[in-house]
Write a structure and sequence with these properties.
alpha+beta; three-stranded antiparallel β-sheet; rod-shaped
């Protein structure tokens, strides 16, 4: 890979970071730092490229670039930036998966049935017991007269016992 190709690749990565900064990605500060480091790397590579063209002979020493407190060679920096690019692809995948989950939840919410309202009816039944409470929606009954205050919903049909019309 030539220095010009590396510069082009780094400039494309800068554009990618700017896109994530504009959409206010969750890890925005990391993208800002990446963009700054990439811009510094491009500046150094352009200087290096001019130096090589002037001398017209290969530079034997390895150029080190300061990146987040570390000295990295160009190859190491490009490797790290490729690693970040893979992370960027993972973030895009996470966003797509979250959008799928949200769509599924919205669909599930749309499938919810409307709330049924009912009330407890006190009945006299001398064949089985003296008194019983019956659900106004499904007819479920109990002889426990204290159920009126303890069950907010019918255990059988799920009707909300708020005194609604049967």
């Amino acid at each position: 890979m030539t220095a010009e190709e590396i510069i082009e690749q780094l400039e494309r990565l800068i554009d990618d970071r700017e896109a994530f900064i504009r959409v206010d990605a969750p890890d925005r500060n990391a993208f800002v730092r990446d963009k700054e480091a990439l811009e510094k790397a491009v500046k150094v590579l352009k200087q290096y490229n001019r130096l090589v063209q002037v001398k017209a002979k290969p530079v034997k020493q390895r150029i080190k670039i300061q990146y987040e407190g570390e000295e990295l060679t160009i190859k190491e920096l490009v490797g790290r930036l490729e690693y970040y690019k893979e992370g960027q692809e993972y973030l895009k995948w996470v966003v797509v998966e979250r959008e799928k989950e949200i769509a599924l939840l919205k669909k599930q919410l749309a499938d919810v049935q409307p709330v049924q309202h009912g009330r407890w009816i006190l009945e006299d039944d001398f064949k089985i017991v003296e008194q019983r409470l019956r659900c106004s929606k499904c007819g479920w009954w109990t002889i426990n007269l204290f159920v009126d205050g303890s069950y907010n919903y019918c255990p059988k049909c799920g009707a909300k016992m708020d005194g609604g019309k049967s």
